[in-house]
Design brief:
By secondary structure, the chain is mainly alpha-helical. Helix content is 56%, strand content 3%. A hairpin with a 2-residue loop joins strand 1 and strand 2. Helix 3 packs across helix 5.
Length: 133
């Protein structure tokens, strides 16, 4: 199991100004945001790779990368919605999205219907502005 630590993922906050230079050139907010999203995506992939065959959501929630993503909160939302959009681990991602957002647009969906759960979350993502309409 690969574990990504908090030191390897540094989420940006709205309103932060990111400047500076590196050997790759000057930094912009867009470059920094892209880097953060790429790091979050690596954590999500490590989490899903480690838990994809688990049948117990309790065990999925105990994974260290799930805990890290839950603690990161909102910066992980667009990456999780991207996973759902791609058809990967809809139920696991929906569970984590519910924990992060406090919302559950799939509450009225029949349990276990990954396709409907995914559709509910993608509609939520469009309404919230995470996904272009």
């Amino acid at each position: 199991m690969s574990v990504v630590t908090a030191e390897t993922v540094q989420p940006t906050q709205p309103g932060w100004i990111v400047t500076g230079t590196s050997t790759a050139g000057s930094w912009t907010h867009e470059k920094a945001e892209a880097l953060v999203q790429a790091r979050i995506a690596r954590v999500v992939n490590a989490w899903l790779d480690a838990t994809i065959l688990m049948s117990s959501l309790h065990d999925v929630r105990r994974d260290p990368n799930y805990q890290l993503l839950a603690n990161l909160g909102w910066p992980a939302v667009s990456v999780l919605l991207g996973q759902i959009s791609g058809g990967r681990a809809r139920i696991q991602c929906a569970e984590l999205l519910t924990e992060i957002t406090g919302d559950n647009p799939a509450a009225r969906v029949v349990a276990g219907r990954a396709d409907l759960i995914g559709q509910a979350w993608l509609s939520w993502g469009r309404r919230q502005g995470f996904i272009a309409a």
